[in-house]
Each structure stands twice: as structure tokens, then as C-alpha cells.
Amino acid sequence: MNDEKMRMQYSLGGLLYLPSVNKNIIQKIKDRAFSHLTSLAFCLEDAIQDDFLDEAEKNLGDILAELVEFEKGGDKDSLPLIFIRIRNPKHMKHILKIICFISRYYYGVYFTKI
Prior knowledge:
single chain; about 110 residues; alpha/beta; four-stranded parallel sheet; globular
């Protein structure tokens, strides 16, 4: 990780917050539609109804897998810092099992108010 990315992990800048069912973000990131975007939070919490949680988790896995492929093209520094908003500690264990294969591509998870 370059020095700039190391510094950015401590200063998030503008955080784009979106539900994990939004797959349109992938192409926008690849096209650099948000040239100043430094961090992105995929929500699996209050932006997702309980009935759609499984779909949102699957979409999140698909989104992150596609971003991994994009990064393999040598463009990781163009990716924003990626965070995942989870529902509770039990949900964190569950979601980390789903996305553990791409753990180096997201910078953290955050909890709702507990």
C-alpha cells in the first residue's frame, strides 16, 4: 500500500454510503465517475429490509469479487477505501465467512449503534 493510501485510512474524506444491492457502482468506480471519492460504505443494515438481506449479501460478494478482478488489472490505487456496515456482532461473523477471500480489498466493518 502506498503512503497516500496509508494516510487516507485515517482520514476517510467523503464517504459514499449505499445499499449493498446497488451493482451500478462497479462501473462508476471503474470509469472513475467519482474522481474524488476516497471511501465507500456498503450497507447491510438499515438500508436493507430483512427480507432482502440474503440478496444484499450475495450482491456485496459479487461487487467485491468484481472489484478484485478490476484491481488485478493493476489499478488498486484507484479504488476507494471500502467499508461494510453490518447489523450486529453475529452478523459480522456471518458476513466475514462470505467475504473472507477478499479481505485485503476492504478496510473495515462498522456497526450500527448497539
